[in-house]
Amino acid sequence: MIRVVTGTAQDLRRDPVHPETSAPIEGMAIPDWSALRELVVTVAPLFPGIRTQSWDVALTHRGPVLLEINWGGDLHLHQFAHGEGILDPIFCDHLRECGYRGTLPARE
Asked: How far is CA 12 from CA 16, 21, 46, 101, in A?
């Protein structure tokens, strides 16, 4: 994990350690990340009607287990974590391909 944040706007702050256990969180590797990613990439095409997918995945002693698929998901969460917005050219193109008709930044 690159960084962990909590709060919003002016109350946004980094939390490099777990607030209850004080165990370090930043820099922690997510167990079975490659297997988790491969699983989601493999099953995502089975749901072609859900063009913007968010998956809930449990990490178990037997490997990653899919819990549910969500449409869209909480796009603001990773924006907080990464400190940048999501409306980059790649995501804007994805929205256009999905038929979004709202205002988006002009293509570069």
From this structure: 13, 20, 37, 32
